[in-house]
Amino acid sequence: MIDFELTQEQKDAIKRAHQIAEEMFRPISRYYDEHEHESPNEMIDTLWSRRQEATLFGGLDLTAALTVEEVCWGDAGFYLVAPGPCLGGAAVFAAGTREQMERFLKRFSEGGPKWGAMAMTESGCGSDTSAISTTAVRDGDEWVINGEKIFVTWGKRALEESDGFVVVWANIDRSAGRAGMKSFVVEAGTPGVRVEKLEKKLGIKVSDTATIVFENCRVPFDNILGSPEIKKAAEGKAAGFKGAMATFDVTRPIVGAMALGVARAALDFVKDVLREEGIEVRCGSPRKNLTTIEKDVMEMEANYKAAKMLILRSLWMMGQLQPNNLESSMAKAKAGLAATKITQKAIEIMGPLGYSRKYLLEKWMRDAKINDIFEGTGQINMLIVARRILNYSRDELK
Ligand SMILES: Cc1cc2nc3c(=O)[nH]c(=O)nc-3n(C[C@H](O)[C@H](O)[C@H](O)COP(=O)(O)OP(=O)(O)OC[C@H]3O[C@@H](n4cnc5c(N)ncnc54)[C@H](O)[C@@H]3O)c2cc1C
Fold first, then answer.
1. Ligand 1 pocket, mutate which of 120, 371, 373, 387 (most atoms under 8 A from CB)
2. I need a surface site. Which of 103, 229, 239, 329 has the fewest CB within 10 A?
3. Residue 166 has pLDDT above 50, yes or no
């Protein structure tokens, strides 16, 4: 039976995350929005030093989603600069062997702050992840990687500011189609990899989004995640293209939780202002008696809660080792759209108060949109949902 009643442990984790959001993130949120690419080093060091606290807000499970929502209520960009295995770690977790998990993830328990990035997107390959043109060619006991990846979150921090790594997706045999797509761990300091530039963005400006170039970049043979064989699956672990998709099943609900945090920040702001002005949202009153603002706030709240239920369910399924591909895409699509709509509606309700840079509401609207773009756009996740429900293959429904 699914039961989302919070345990005491989860309540404590949420409380800790909220404290970080309120005391550490909110006071400097505007500064880093206005100083793009400046790094909040002091905060990074503090978060790293506190990482041993149980479920600070790392991880990929249900408790993690609850804490991610909480810290993103404070500032979603800061969540994305918090050191840890991040998306690169999720890729190792989804496609790597036990030995690789041990080898690549051990570093996160020692030394200074570090990050793990994942590079899939290229200028000709975003939603259609199978169109990857980056290549990895075997040369003796090494792979030689060539290509350019764009929009890599944590790219600079992983490769230039720490001894982290980037998981790069490349093709080892183009004639094999999707089955030839594999992922490789490229560690910081490897010759042949460089950060070309950082993107200037609409929102989450404190997060580094890098273009990374691989030029005859050589990595050890056993840095390929999972099996080097071109086949559908290896020893119960997803391989090749399936490995990439399995990564998203794990990470999409967490991105959904980021969206929830931003949406709730906007919703709380609206409710606080209305309360201060003596306007009560009369839940339970007949619809015909409600004002437009009351209906709007209720709709925002319903969308937020619906997205949250979908996120919790997809992560609960993952915890039960049940396939959650449909549910994770559903949750991500709903949460990305809900956050976009809720933040925009909040500005509409607040008018100039929402548009002014005096408050963070306009920033949250800019921050919210990314949740409907990365880890699969809203449209792509809806496409996955449609395929799953209608039982169509990828080729039958594009
Ligand atoms: C800030 C930021 C951080 C990012 N971080 C990472 C990262 O860490 N690693 C990484 O690999 N990538 C990252 N990305 C890339 C991101 O995942 C892609 O931008 C996203 O998947 C969309 O791909 P695209 O940009 O090529 O757009 P396109 O695929 O060209 O899509 C453009 C539009 O067309 C729509 N569309 C495309 N195909 C279809 C279809 N079949 N049906 C309906 N609509 C469709 C899309 O929904 C979208 O609205 C990041 C992007 C941003 C902006």
1. 373
2. 229
3. yes
